[in-house]
């Protein structure tokens, strides 16, 4: 099983404003960026996200995920009727969630959401990081990274520069 975080962050390391808004990120949307995400998503077969990310995505005009989404939450009990076949709530910690998905036959997992990414990193369960830096400072907000129990070394795989100034870097965890 492979786990990959794919996320955008401000230059100062935030994935959203404190209130969860991502207006600073959305203004950089482009066909080039959408194509990059489409290429990435064609290689994954399931998505794990946290409740905050899930609730934010519910405010978008359309549900754009093609793969099955698993929301890690002990608070959320139901999903909207229109998403019942697309979303499953799992009241699990990261390792138990991965065991569950492995048992269901999933093997390439996209991990999304700040707290979920942090919890996967804390348990050393993220194999790859794909981080797109947005050329804007927002001063404060929800950070991408948090405390770790140990150092986790990553190897740089490649970096892409987009015409609108975004810089996407791909890292693979170095196995110990």
UniProtKB/TrEMBL annotation:
Top-level division of the source organism's lineage: Bacteria
Pfam families assigned: RibD_C
GO biological process per UniProt: riboflavin biosynthetic process
Coiled coil location: none
InterPro entries: DHFR-like_dom_sf, RibDG_C, Riboflavin_Biosynth_HTPR
MF annotations from Gene Ontology: 5-amino-6-(5-phosphoribosylamino)uracil reductase activity
Name the record gives this protein: Bacterial bifunctional deaminase-reductase C-terminal domain-containing protein
Organism of derivation: Flavobacterium gilvum
């Amino acid at each position: 099983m492979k786990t990959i975080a794919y996320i955008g962050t401000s230059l100062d390391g935030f994935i959203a404003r404190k209130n969860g808004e991502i207006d600073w990120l959305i203004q950089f949307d482009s066909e080039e960026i959408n194509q990059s995400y489409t290429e990435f998503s064609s290689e994954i077969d399931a998505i794990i996200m946290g409740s905050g990310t899930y609730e934010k995505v519910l405010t978008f005009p359309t549900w754009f995920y093609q793969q099955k989404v698993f929301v890690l939450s002990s608070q959320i009990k139901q999903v909207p009727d229109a998403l019942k076949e697309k979303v499953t709530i799992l009241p699990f910690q990261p390792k138990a969630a991965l065991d569950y998905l492995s048992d269901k036959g999933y093997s390439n997992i996209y991990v999304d959401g700040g707290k979920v990414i942090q919890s996967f990193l804390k348990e050393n369960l993220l194999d790859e990081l794909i981080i797109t830096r947005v050329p804007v400072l927002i001063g404060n907000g929800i950070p991408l990274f948090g405390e770790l129990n140990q150092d986790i070394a990553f190897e740089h795989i490649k970096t892409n520069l987009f015409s609108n100034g975004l810089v996407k870097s791909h890292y693979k965890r170095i196995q110990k």
